[in-house]
Amino acid sequence: MTTTQQPPPPPPQPPHGPGPSGSGHGPGGHGHSHSHGPATPVSQHLRKVIAAILVPFSVAVVVGLVVLWPGGAPDHERTGVGFDRQTQQATVARVEKVDCKSVNAAGSATQDPSGAPTQGRASGTCEKATIRVATGKDTGRTFTEIIQPDSPRQLREGQKVIVAYAPDAPRELQYSVTDVDRKIPMALLAGIFALVVVVVGRMRGVMALVALAVSFLVLTLFILPAILQGSNPLVVAVVGASAIMLIALYMCHGLTARTSVAVLGTLVSLLLIGVLGSLFIGWAALTGNTDDNTGLIHGLYPDIDMSGLLLAGVIIGSLGVLDDVTVTQTSAVWELHEANPTMGWRGLYRAGIRIGRDHIASVVNTLVLAYAGAALPLLLLFSIAQSSVVDVATSELVAEEIVRTLVGSIGLVAAVPVTTALAALVVSADRPTSGGRPARTAPGRGGGGRRRKR
After folding, report:
1. Residue 101 domain flag
2. 43, 145, 422, 445: which has the fewest C-beta neighbours closer than 10 Å?
3. What is the pLDDT of residues 246-283, one digit of tens each?
């Protein structure tokens, strides 16, 4: 007779939740696993402290939105200059080769013997494009445009273009090609971007896209119309940026103490950027009116404070990178606490600030190189003129961007220790409890001693 041996019963599993040390270890000492889900809830007391700060701030932002909400930007008579022109969509119906002299195409500017500039006739083969208007009251109307061989924009048959309409000009000169219609490639690129964000970020990616859409709506429906309506650009930027910050951070990262700490760190840094920006824009006598676009805005809306508009741009431009820095630092401190719950706030701060220093180095370098890349044509012009570095840096056109970059960078650098300290204080003050008693911690420097092995 064969006896069947029963397998031994499985060993008892450690209970879920924090053990005596608050680290989630059971009796075996290795039952802890790092959670990548929502942050551990903090105590009711800390929630009240955080709410006491953020609730009044949120109410103030809502009141600001209601008070400053624009009733609609005032209409103005179009000047027909630059961006202030009526435009329509059109299609290149036909392109044919013609002799430049036969169509009186203007050539490059030259100088006569006295040194005065003259305009000669172009030589060689030009292109004569027939353009058909596709939108507006003149849909179906055609006009011709001559493209010289050295023109930076060459047209091809079937191409979609944007044309400007000047109603007061002679009929044959009312329409002219101003740009290429880029809707399809830009929409395709935006679709690829959204797909990559969703595939990699999953639900977080979806919420990030929703937050991006909300930020765009706040910018286009509130910030821009309110400034055009005559409200103070600085106040509008502060209210709008605060609304974007609250919506984006809580929507992407959840209504948690971790997110609230990031909001507080961002708020403190934005305040510092606003104060420094206001001080140095006034001290350096920057007008904010340095190119044709800002000149056109000032001409159409002379009541707009252009230096205030410059400061508003500094605040809004810094917000996106600030969110990244504060959320990263807060998450780093929280994860450090999850890995070693016995670590005190000083130990958490020291470990978090080491991570932050790497972040500071990369962010500052990114900001400077981003500006240098965007301003490369301008820097080339100064190089051609053989201007000294001091002359270039102190010219208003460049000084404006230098102040914008440095003030934003100071705010970003300050965000690291401020947010790290706030996160360390909050998470270390919220000790997990077991059986109604605070968890015991091993002695250590700054409360950051090593756990005793069990």
Report:
1. yes
2. 445
3. 988 888 888 888 888 889 999 999 889 989 988 998 89
